[in-house]
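Can't paste images in this forum, so I'm doing it all in text. The chain is below; anyone willing to post the predicted structure tokens underneath?
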Amino acid sequence: MKILAIGKNYVNNKSDLEAISKGFQMIFSKPESSLLLNGKDLEYPSFTSNLLYEVELVIKIGKSGKNISEEDAISFISEIGIGIDYTAKDLLNQVRETKGPWELAKGFDGAAPISNFIPISNFKNVEDINFKLSINGEEKQVGNTGFMIYNFAEIISFTSKYMTLQPGDLIFTGTPATGAGASFKGDHLQASIEGELLLDFKVV
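Text version of the structure:
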């Protein structure tokens, strides 16, 4: 199973989409060991003092595909969930200084909490999905897929040019343009899709 993620994929205003020159998507990966499942609490990593959260919709691939066209891409999604892309920002800053890889800062144990998944057939329009993250009861991030720079189909088509997508693969599809921030011990994170609470855990 692959866990892929796309960076910098949302705007605050749809009018900004017209001014963006689309090109090479920024894709990175996380190891399977980074997954945090079943609402398990996240143990704050000992190697960082700057743990950043980003809420993201996560698409699950339902069938194998290579060089997938944008027209066919949505048919390769079986389910949609919600997750947190965690970053050890101080560690990321260190590796950026030497232009090193992101794996340690993005792929540590627990760096990818994810919810249970909802069948894609439950969604009337994948380009109009609302999602939200609250921490300690306070709304922190609100997103809608209509504000994506690269939509689900474009992400799948682009990625499949370079690697075969297989059943069970997960793709984190980007975080809303504002609201990402630091997590602290004791934080209670709750993430929902279309008002349905799907992800609920604490940082301990």
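The helical segments are 70-73, 89-97, 103-106, 152-160. The mean pLDDT is 95.
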